[in-house]
Amino acid sequence: MTVPAEIKKLRVATTSLAGCFGCHMSFLDIDERLLELLHYIEFDRTPLTDIKHCGPCDIGLVEGGICNAENVHVLREFRKNCKMLVAIGACAVTGGLPAQRNHLDLADCLQEVYVTETSLGKGGIPNDPELPLPLDRVYPIQEVVKVDYFVPGCPPSADAIWKFLTDLLAGRTPRLGHGLISYD
Prior knowledge:
- By secondary structure, the chain is of the alpha/beta class.
- The chain has a domain at 10-99 and 134-169: NADH:ubiquinone oxidoreductase-like, 20kDa subunit (Rossmann fold).
- It has helices at residues 22-28, 33-37, 69-81, 90-94, 106-116, 158-169; strands at residues 10-16, 41-43, 57-63, 66-68, 82-88, 134-139, 149-151.
- It has a 5-stranded parallel sheet, sandwiched between helices.
- The longest helix has 13 residues, at 69-81.
- It is elongated.
């Protein structure tokens, strides 16, 4: 990676909303290149640090769409603390697989899962204030906050994430060419 020596370390944070955590796994699949990244960045909130709240950051990476009120709250707070926000993966960019429920009525889904389906018992639809309020549909993150960059894929490959981050660190506009974007 060619990054100017005079560059100060950038603070990077990540968060996961409604998704499968596959984008974080791809990020971790950068493997030993993570050690090289540590010369240029420091991590704030990520699974690597176990920091629960995001402090002021230069770059925020978000995976997952928005399916409930808690996702909206987490995303808005995360956006406030990040100079640049990046939607990572199909769920953040388009709503992804969780958005498959968008063509169904939410009340019908809850009825089917909690009342009709016998394997879960007939306890009724949960109504606990500790549970986040589900939204009428799953939203991509740019419908709630401003997004600066999009890294598509399901999940994006480690190489795509690496290329994106190293382009940013080198002061280049990130460009993911043919072969770096895939939907498995």
